[in-house]
């Protein structure tokens, strides 16, 4: 078969591991040919592609980014976009299409499927908030990087009796903040799912201070809601992927904490360092399994499906189901935070 | 309540994170007192313990090893052992016991429960082969360390046109070899669940050699079965935890490969470096969740249970069920390897 | 002897390794007693101290921060400060004082020496700009962290055809930017020693763009001078250590680059993550050697000296000489950048 | 100019960073052309080469290994070897040759220079034992890897009350063992420069045991001399680079320690993991500076020289001088170990 492949949306460690697995199994086992469309759906719109051979994917398994590059081009918002894509795929004699991406990307995959294109989806969201799967690759890497940063902040905060606020990714869902906060032993963890209660935040820091721990680490998701309405005023400066620019909720919160407690407070925003670089072993394995399952679906003729993780097994669900809603941090996960906090 | 706590069997990154979570939630939310028995069941047998306060668990979340230390003492193999343990627990006015450990440790927990001790288990096996749970803490850390080593071996093997055999942990189950092998892009991965086929191994290396890749990385589990009967002759030198000593299957296999192919072949055994040091964020989170769930079970009076991961949720199952069998690498996981290999 | 010890100024990975070495050799070889003054000179002013025993320094070698904590209290700016310090030292029967810190800290050490206190200095500056020594501990760790971040930024920038500006520490000297920039393969490196030439910066990025590399990595020291006068307007918000707060030169420069080139440009500021956490092996070794040399100087009665690295040897120079001037990036180091850049 | 380039001897992190710097400055600043001879001197003997363009060195700065590959072929031991090399260089119209390698490689460079070839040397030894330079790239990376391993071994050894012996590289010089041992807080460090005194080793471990530290970490260089004559009997199995195979001095020493003290003792040999993978920032910078200096020497017509580090500056010395003797661990470095040890 002649299979098209693309990566859409924000980049994410593990994208290359998916590509590597798809192409390797496709060529070695099924005798497929691969066409890589460049920069997400833009490459399909503009018919910009490159062949993906075994040589092209050699050694990319552990590389961050995506050799196909990516973009946020959303075909559905472009008039005649779907038709143009269908035409490109026909012109390239594509028998099946594998699209790796999040909600936005998969909504286009879904539209193409409805237009008759045999498509399969691989989920991708560094925020881990896609509905229907236990895990998305890239998330574990982001959490690892954030946790290592939090580990480092402990000693410098402690040396200076300071509070340090560390802002991490997570616009709608607080999985990265929750996991890196718990794993990093942060004293306060704040997620978008629960409005920030400044009294509670300062109460926790004060409790520690009164019990001999004269420093504090606060991990906050970029999408956490500041008290007094909405996000940081700087939050209006969002980038094209909807992520807050540098001076976001973390810095605003640091100023509030210092104002209220009098403790010297600093902030740091991990920004783009969280999404680059080599994926963790966990993410490489998950991405590889997704890739293998996706090419298997193609050869089973099982289209319109998204590969997902359920427990230890790779399964597949309708793409339409996955993009219908988000998976945010639920109460039983917020109880983890409660369980580790003093009552203040 | 007055709760006893111990860690048994081989050490594993994440043990301290479990202790940290149990003690923090126990004291801060339930008003418990904690007694830590030292060096596994030996501490219960000998009535050797230390109080576990908030101060004692401060800052241990990210530390490897276990502040309670551990041993392989198996109470069931000692005459009157169970009675002695019951007496110690009574003497210490222990209302409930939380035992963190693998099959051997939990078989004692189970025996104590049958003798009337209110006990709860937390699973621990770095090999990830415990039945009934999707994951055990420590495994992700071991895989990370092994994968980083495999990453490093690629460049030195390539620079010298060599084959390097990397031996990793896994006596009965090949999860570490499988995951680190796939994540590290090894060319051959060998697990205990499938006898080594030397022709196939050398065939894969030769295929790569003939296609321009003049080096090879082989990842082998310590328990993999060499061709011609059983394990490496050196395999008889096992340590007290049943792990092969330094010169094991890896070195024997390297000699076989060099003999058969003529390719210069070296071996390295990652040994104890795989089980020490700070746990990954994944393992810290999982261990924390296990600890929180274990102390909750105690306060629910839900004894005889083992906390487990199912999908994204923490559940609990009867201890007796978990220790009844092992979870080894099944065919659908071996297919991952097939999917990435050329047909030779 | 009874020896006082303190750490002053901004914290720096390796401070604990110095303390560890001083105390270990002092107790084990010289039979000394140690008094640790807490939070830098503030602890001497306020007579706030704790004994430093072998147990107190066990296991701190690889820890970031400083068990003695630190502050920026400058005794010389406090009326009667020097006299108060002399009195505290006398009251504690201190025979000799070892002060670990940078210019500010050592200027107090020097004043105390002139007031008759037998003192020895250990240099500390994460910026590596202390005159008279080839290297300061902490710098290598900061560079490692910054380089790993730059490594990660490459793949995310490339995936999106973006320019990413990474701001690193270095107020007066650009050693961190220079080293992490070169080691990380940044396309543009900007230091405080040379005013930023925006045309040149954009020219380099455009050259790459025209030659197929459609992304760019810019590493900029926080103290680099923006074109059009001085630092970033946000630069006025400096913290108590004189370091720019979050929105500094990096963000301002990113906006200038995007404005001039039209390339999508993002910025990230590594901030406090650069100075926390476990030191590199290099820094641990250097800090250990400094500590051993400092306690040797004390027992040689060789006061008023600062330990320094010269080539591979530890030497000592007058404290007064070291604090007289800074070591900034010189032309022969700037030539490294020229050597790797295209001519534009 | 038309410049030849090769890497010889054992591989070492940083080789690619040298190649990257040489080629970039050569092409961008001097307008040179580069011919890369493959697999060390073997490529010159056999006239096996590939052009080195800017594209060929793009992105290799942070890669371990060497894109030119390497071998231990020693031209001087091959009859007519020097003449053959001279002929190849002439046939390729090589105006100057840059050889990156250790003693053996540079002895050939020197012989070629005497035969009229305009050559320049870049020093390379992971053991850091080359005479005439303060540091060689690759060493810092090896030490980092070994130190991280030692860090990890602490917690597993402590959890089990064990002694763990960690064998590291260093056949003639103990720099890696010394530095990783001190940085990793090992309790005993053993180097080739001083025969192992088993009584002293066991005395140190016993002292710790008697003072509450019931575990021990021993770092031993592969070339350390065991008591009772020579190296481990297994030491006869050396690889083609003279490095001991897996079961070397570490395992033999572990057995001796367990025999003498009765403490449970394990060993691990870090082996090839120490020389692979991405170089540290320190090594990337040093290698880059060496590369830039080497191509400068070529254009200054300053042949027969080896680039070296002296303090913070890159200098050059006659190749003949560098290969005349080794730089081993001297008494003032052994005093570091004495300073940190109890007197037993």
From TrEMBL, chains A, B, C, D:
Cofactor(s), by name: Mg(2+)
Q: How is its activity regulated?
A: Non-allosteric.
> Which keywords does UniProt give here?
Cytoplasm, Glycolysis, Kinase, Magnesium, Metal-binding, Transferase
Annotated binding of diphosphate, by residue: 10
GO annotation terms (biological process)? canonical glycolysis; fructose 1,6-bisphosphate metabolic process; fructose 6-phosphate metabolic process
This entry's Enzyme Commission designation comes to 2.7.1.90
Q: Which GO terms describe its molecular function?
A: 6-phosphofructokinase activity; AMP binding; ATP binding; diphosphate-fructose-6-phosphate 1-phosphotransferase activity; fructose-6-phosphate binding; identical protein binding; metal ion binding; monosaccharide binding
The residues that hold Mg(2+) are: 103
Q: Which residue positions hold the site described Important for catalytic activity?
A: 124
Q: What GO terms fall under cellular component here?
A: 6-phosphofructokinase complex
The entry marks the following residues as binding substrate, namely 125-127, 162, 169-171, 222, 266, 272-275
Report which reactions are catalysed by this protein.
beta-D-fructose 6-phosphate + diphosphate = beta-D-fructose 1,6-bisphosphate + phosphate + H(+)
Q: Where in the cell is it found?
A: Cytoplasm
Recorded metabolic or biological pathway in which this protein acts? Carbohydrate degradation; glycolysis; D-glyceraldehyde 3-phosphate and glycerone phosphate from D-glucose: step 3/4
Q: Where is the Phosphofructokinase domain?
A: 2-297
The reply on keyword Secreted is: no
Q: Name the active site residues.
A: 127 (proton acceptor)
Spell out the residues of the site Important for catalytic activity and substrate specificity: 104
Instruction: Describe the subunit structure.
Output: Homodimer or homotetramer.
**Functional note:** Catalyzes the phosphorylation of D-fructose 6-phosphate, the first committing step of glycolysis. Uses inorganic phosphate (PPi) as phosphoryl donor instead of ATP like common ATP-dependent phosphofructokinases (ATP-PFKs), which renders the reaction reversible, and can thus function both in glycolysis and gluconeogenesis. Consistently, PPi-PFK can replace the enzymes of both the forward (ATP-PFK) and reverse (fructose-bisphosphatase (FBPase)) reactions.
Q: What family, per the record?
A: Belongs to the phosphofructokinase type A (PFKA) family. Mixed-substrate PFK group III subfamily.
Name the UniProt record assigns to this protein: Pyrophosphate--fructose 6-phosphate 1-phosphotransferase
Species? Alloacidobacterium dinghuense
């Amino acid at each position: 078969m002649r299979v098209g492949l693309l990566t859409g949306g924000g980049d994410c460690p593990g994208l290359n591991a998916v590509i590597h697995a798809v192409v390797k199994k496709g060529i070695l086992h099924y005798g497929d040919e691969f066409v890589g469309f460049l920069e997400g759906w833009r490459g399909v719109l503009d018919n910009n592609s490159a062949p993906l051979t075994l040589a092209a994917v050699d050694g990319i398994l552990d590389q961050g980014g995506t050799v196909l590059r990516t973009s946020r081009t959303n075909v559905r918002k472009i008039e005649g976009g779907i038709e143009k894509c269908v035409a490109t795929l026909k012109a390239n004699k594509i028998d099946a299409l594998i699209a790796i991406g999040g909600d936005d990307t998969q909504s286009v995959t879904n539209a193409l499927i409805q237009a008759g294109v045999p498509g399969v989806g691989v989920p991708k969201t560094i925020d881990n908030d896609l509905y229907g799967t236990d895990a998305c690759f890239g998330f574990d890497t982001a959490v690892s990087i954030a946790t290592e940063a939090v580990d480092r902040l402990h000693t410098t905060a402690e040396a200076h009796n300071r509070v340090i606020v560390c802002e991490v990714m997570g616009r709608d869902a607080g999985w990265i903040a929750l996991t890196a906060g718990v794993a990093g032993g942060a004293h306060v963890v704040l997620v978008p799912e629960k409005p920030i209660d400044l009294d509670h935040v300062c109460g926790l820091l004060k409790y520690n201070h009164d019990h001999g721990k004269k420093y504090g680490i606060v991990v906050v998701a970029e999408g956490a809601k500041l008290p007094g309405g909405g996000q940081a005023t700087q939050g209006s400066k969002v980038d094209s992927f909807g992520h807050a620019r540098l001076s976001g909720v973390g810095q605003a919160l640091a100023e509030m904490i210092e104002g209220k407690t009098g403790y010297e407070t600093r902030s740091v925003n991990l920004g783009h360092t969280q999404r680059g670089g080599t994926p963790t072993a966990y993410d490489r394995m998950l991405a590889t399994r997704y890739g293998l399952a996706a090419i298997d679906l193609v050869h089973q003729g099982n289209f319109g499906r998204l590969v997902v993780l359920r427990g230890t097994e790779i399964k597949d669900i309708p793409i339409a189901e996955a993009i219908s809603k988000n998976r945010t941090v639920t109460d039983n996960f917020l109880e983890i935070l409660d369980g580790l906090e003093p009552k203040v």
